[in-house]
Write a structure and sequence with these properties.
The chain has 14 helices and 35 strands. By secondary structure, the chain is an alpha+beta fold. Helix 4 packs parallel to helix 5, helix 6 runs antiparallel to helix 7 and helix 8 packs parallel to helix 12.
Length: about 675
């Protein structure tokens, strides 16, 4: 009898006590628009196949957008398939051609992937060139370079979720350049839990799919935030292993918390509009010209700057509201990791463009109307146009209780102070942390050489320390500097944004006037009280492996000097990117890039010149006649890269061989982005 009772009790308990829950299943949906990068796309597909997915992880892929797949996939079709048993599954289909820049194509892919691979968790990855807020992603070269704008990404996801109310997107990731923007997060805040994206350009091969898919397969129960961290960590680790000096960035943003951030940004943007309406364009233009734009090269940039650089450069107009924005921002960005090449890298960039073409046909006003009004108005005013602002007055604000009463004042920057401060009448009352309950992000890269976790923020003031960053801790009179100076009138100074030094070499003779451009350097000090502009040019020129080269400073701040050298690498014209940072105060040759293509999309990745490569310096030159000027380019002798790679240094030209004649002038950029030149001073070196 006792044995029978025990059996009955066991049977009853087996019905009453649930079995141990199986780990959740995850479907990873990769929307791969290969454009002109089909080699990199195939490499990433191979990485997916190399991952041991196990039974809880499924990968669904749509690959297209490229005219040439080298007969591996079809170029005149959409290739749709799953990854199974470390290979392309039997469900491979070549679908009729359709643009991957069409939101409907993305919706169709989601519908197939979700129905073919139902799961507990869904991750969507968009793969291609990315251009940030202004240029979107997934440029389909087989469909006339049609692309997905951030509004169209929103439209596709919103439409699909409206049609499928039981569907929930746990994570959206962007394996593309420049897509880690505030504006994109604002659009997606109600459509997914987490966003993983880069503020910066990405290397060609992008994410390390073998690493993070393998980590998920080994631990299918890992939470979605931890999965985002695994993607970010493996991306940076792989990038540093390939190019230890590359610009790398990846962040994990909790999208539900972006709702609070949007509220604060809308109020802050209204105050920035008030600043523009009260004549503060000069202050804003000076601040903007000293912020690093991600993906910056000579001819173009993304128009996106780091959120904390944006706040620290503008917070003097509305310091209390800026602090509320900062608090909400740091709640939303759960994790940020990158290389140490930056002055600011905190997780999300914000659109702060200077070029009118960057805002043409841009549809983001519905997600962030006041912010859109601010940057559109700023661009119009900066380009000499008028603009009628239409903003919503700031609503009542609130921040977390620990921040209330501890609001910061305007940041000390090496620029004239603003003459306007908003009347911040909105109430500051406690508000719950939107990300409360999420565990802290656990990084695996704390001890990784060259990696920085937790974000990077410049210290010692946003734009201070120019002289020290260029020449070390010394006074101007202690350095062997040119000391050439001019004095601007009060009216001229009011319209000035920044000043640089331009150096030209006289390469002509008695019959012909030929000038060779040697570069522009931001080693100029402005006395904003007296109007005196002083050059700190020290008679040294950049030498790349003992060859004199042209160098252009793109930006110099307290924590970053980023410059480019025009060269041809094995016959292909482009730029060598070179930097100085506190982590690496000597010159670092990061690598070679062609910059931007005809569609305004950046070259994805930096190429490090290898031993045996041929570097040919390029010199912009001018042939002058009495009534005309002809521009042309001179190629240097070139040299072969040796086993020691490339070395950049500045060397004195004084007394070196035959004396040459140089011309030095100031380049003045006004608050409207226009550049003018001072008179030349003649130098013999």
């Amino acid at each position: 009898m006792k044995k029978l009772l025990a059996v009955l009790l066991f049977v009853l308990l087996s019905f009453c006590v649930p079995a141990l829950a199986a780990p959740p299943t995850t479907t990873v949906m990769v929307y791969m628009c290969a454009s002109d990068m089909y080699d990199a796309a195939l490499y990433d597909l191979l990485e997916m196949c190399e991952a041991d997915l196990g039974s809880q992880v499924q990968v669904a892929v749509m690959a297209g957008g490229a005219q040439d797949w080298e007969d591996i996939l079809e170029g005149d079709a959409l290739n749709r398939f799953s990854i199974e048993n470390q290979d392309v599954a039997d469900d491979y289909e070549a679908l009729p051609m359709a643009s991957m820049g069409d939101p409907e194509t993305l919706c169709d892919f989601l519908d197939w992937a979700v129905n073919a691979h139902p799961a507990d968790r869904y991750v969507l990855v968009l793969w291609d060139h990315g251009g940030g807020t202004g240029s979107g992603i997934c440029w389909d070269e087989s469909a006339g370079d049609d692309f997905l704008s951030i509004w169209e990404i929103y439209d596709a996801l919103y439409t699909y979720e409206e049609q499928n109310p039981d569907f929930h997107l746990d994570m959206i990731g962007f394996d593309a350049c420049l897509m880690g923007t505030y504006e994109l997060a604002a659009h997606l805040r109600d459509l997914a839990d987490f966003m993983v994206a880069s503020e910066e350009l990405e290397p060609g091969n992008g994410w390390d799919y073998t690493a993070w898919l393998g980590a998920l397969s080994r631990d299918p129960a890992m939470d979605t935030q931890a999965l985002g961290v695994a993607i970010a960590d493996s991306f940076v680790a792989a990038g540093l292993a390939e190019e230890p000096d590359d610009y790398l960035s990846m962040s994990v943003t909790y999208l539900p918390a972006v709702a609070n951030l949007c509220d604060y940004m809308e109020a802050y943007s209204a105050y920035l509009v008030q600043a523009l309406e009260n004549g503060q364009l000069p202050v804003l233009s000076r601040a903007r010209d000293r912020m690093y734009s991600f993906g910056d090269f000579v001819e173009q940039d993304s128009g996106c700057v780091d959120m904390m650089a944006y706040l620290n450069g503008t917070r003097q107009f509305a310091p209390e509201t800026a602090q509320a924005v900062e608090e909400a921002y740091k709640q939303a960005v759960r994790y940020c990791v990158g290389s140490t090449q930056y002055d600011y890298l905190t997780g999300l960039s914000v659109f702060f463009p200077t070029d009118f073409e960057q805002v043409e046909d841009l549809e983001i006003a519905e997600a962030c109307p006041n912010h859109s009004e601010f940057f559109c108005g700023y661009v119009m005013l900066r380009n000499g146009q008028s603009y009628a602002f239409d903003v919503t007055a700031p609503a009542a604000l609130s921040v977390s209780a620990q921040v209330a009463g501890q609001l910061s004042s305007a940041v000390d920057i090496d620029l004239p102070a603003a003459s306007f401060t908003a009347n911040e009448s909105a109430a500051i009352v406690p508000r719950p942390d939107a990300a409360e309950g999420l565990p802290p992000a656990q990084s695996g890269l704390q001890n990784q050489p060259g990696a920085q976790t937790g974000g990077i923020e410049a210290t010692g003031g946003l734009f201070s320390g120019l002289l020290e960053s260029l020449f070390g801790p010394q006074e101007p009179e202690e350095a062997d500097v040119l000391g050439y100076s001019v004095t601007l009138t009060a009216e001229q100074l009011e319209g000035l944004s920044m000043a640089e030094g331009l150096l030209l070499l006289d390469a002509g003779d008695e019959e012909d006037t030929i000038l060779v451009e040697m570069g522009s350097f931001q080693n100029v000090v402005i006395n904003w009280q007296t109007g005196e502009i002083v050059s700190l040019f020290d008679y040294t020129l950049p030498m790349l492996n003992d060859e004199i080269v042209v160098l252009y400073d793109l930006i110099v701040t307290d924590s970053l000097r980023r410059s480019v050298i025009p060269v041809a690498l094995n016959g292909q014209e482009g730029y060598l990117l070179v930097t100085q940072t506190p982590a690496k105060p000597g010159w670092t040759v990061v690598g070679f890039s062609t910059g931007y293509n005809a569609n305004g999309m950046p070259d994805r990745g930096i190429t490090r010149p290898q031993a045996g490569d041929v570097i040919t310096p390029l010199y912009p030159s001018y042939y002058l006649t009495d009534d005309d000027m002809e521009e042309f380019q001179v190629e240097g002798d070139g040299f072969t890269v040796g086993a020691d790679g490339l070395t950049l240094s500045f060397e004195s030209m004084a007394g070196e061989g035959e004396a040459l004649t140089y011309y030095y002038a100031f380049l003045f950029t006004d608050i409207y982005g226009e550049t003018d030149m001072s008179d030349f001073v003649i130098l013999e070196m």
